[in-house]
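Retro notes, structure queue

What went well: the backlog is down to a handful. What didn't: a couple of records were mislabeled last round, so from now on we paste the full input next to the output in the thread. Example, using V-set and immunoglobulin domain-containing protein 1 from Alosa alosa:
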Amino acid sequence: MRSTNIFLLCNMLGIVHSITVTVPERSVNVTERGTVFLACTFTTTAPTKNLIVQWFFTENLGTGQSKQILFYEGGTTVIIPAFQGRLKMLSNPAMTKNATISIDNMQQNDSGMFSCEVNNMPDIEGRNEMTVVVNVLVKPSAPYCSHHGEVATGHQVILTCHSKEGNPPPTYTWTHVKDGQIKGIQDIKKGTMAIQNISQVQFGEYQCVASNGVGTASCTIDLSEEINDGVIAGAIIGALLFCGAIGLLVWVITHQIKKQHKMKVTKSLKDSEMQPMKASRTTHQVKEDGDENPAM
Ligand SMILES: *[C@@H]1O[C@H](CO)[C@@H](O)[C@H](O)[C@H]1NC(C)=O
Ligand SMILES: *[C@@H]1O[C@H](CO)[C@@H](O)[C@H](O)[C@H]1NC(C)=O
Ligand SMILES: *[C@@H]1O[C@H](CO)[C@@H](O)[C@H](O)[C@H]1NC(C)=O
Ligand SMILES: *[C@@H]1O[C@H](CO)[C@@H](O)[C@H](O)[C@H]1NC(C)=O
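Corresponding output:
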């Protein structure tokens, strides 16, 4: 209300005070640990005796809360602790009409919107605030390579690769080290590669490269034929030993059974040698009797 009154008064007096804040770059990229320059200049028709410059920071590209990080008035600059020692006002804005700042050692969580706001009473009209979007670029950290599924002919094997850090988010490419070729179905965003029905020619070393335009990092993993052969050899040796043991057991048992059987057979032979003789004699007698009977 009062501002409007002053504005009307100025208009009536024929004096139009106007402020214009300009930022040459609306979006800035800076690498992690690097220094960012946030340029901001202004024009004002009034003397800069009552100049106030403020910088605000909003985390995560506007989703966070806006907080004041710098306040300048009458030659005095106040900077909040989180930015102390690394944020600098590069000139005296009251003299240069230049409110450019620099921030050293930028971290990933310094990504966000930085706003430059200038007030210079009695300038109250015009554009007094402008925003710069800062993106802190981080090269991918060394990725972690792993695989899931049995490395054996005919099985499905899934390779996975992931970097903990990286901005923008890295993409991942899996290649067979031997011939540099892609041997499965890749998801470059997730970092996976699925090898269906793996065959001998697909065994060997694989490399994953994580890249995001800022840098690259890689890891390798061995889908080893050797380990697989070892397992097979072990299994064969194990099987042979098992068979050997079974064979021995079977031999021992059969030997034992044969021995007992022989003894039984001998014993029963002895028995049968005697009994049939008796029997046959009896039979014979009967037969003889019988024979004799019909003859009678
Ligand atoms: C900043 O980096 C992003 C991602 O790498 C890129 O797309 C964009 O063009 C860059 N912007 C500037 C101003 O360099
Ligand atoms: C504002 O100040 C910065 C840092 O001192 C400088 O690089 C830039 O050229 C200045 N801008 C103008 C328009 O003078
Ligand atoms: C940003 O991360 C750094 C460590 O990398 C930490 O010291 C600082 O407090 C964080 N800042 C905010 C605003 O979370
Ligand atoms: C797996 O691969 C072998 C040899 O290439 C082929 O004979 C077989 O049909 C395949 N099995 C499946 C389920 O695709």
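Agreed that this is the format going forward. Reviewer comment attached to the example: The radius of gyration is 47 Å.
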